[in-house]
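It would be a great kindness if you could assist me with a short task in structural biology. The matter concerns a single protein, recorded as an amino acid sequence and a row of backbone structure tokens. Kindly check, if you would, that the fold set down in the tokens agrees with what the sequence suggests. Thank you for your consideration; the sequence and its tokens are set out here:
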Amino acid sequence: MDWNNDYGDQRDKCTVTHCSNYPRSFVDADIEISELDVLGEALGRDNCFAGIKGRIAPGQMTFARISTDDTFGTIKAYVGQGRFTNDPLECDGGVGVSEIPRLQMLLDFLCQNGFEHHVAMNRSTCADALEEAFGKYFGWEVYNHNKYIAG
């Protein structure tokens, strides 16, 4: 998903959007299977079918991003947990509102450390398990946002 748009003046919330390659279970009951809007404009709508358009259903989620640091030849990651809300949002595609405690602190970290604005999100609460897998078993540098919001 892309998570680079604030949700009004609520500092712990942001919009999450994508052309929508979500599984059917990720969105509310009211869906449309259709072309991918943004790619359809560039590649032709007939070449971009089967996007699921709809509202991301409220509930818990884990977010993660793995990225390379080409300057230092390393792999780095960040993980954390939050939730999708049912706050109103008028956008097309696969859209939703996410709420992450101390989101502005997380976004500052992402910018200061060269992370891209794309993130993976799922319907579990497994940030600590991802941190262990990425850090302990793969040896990557991992920022776990949950550990910084707890104290």
Remarks:
- Helices lie at 37-43, 103-112, 127-137, 145-149.
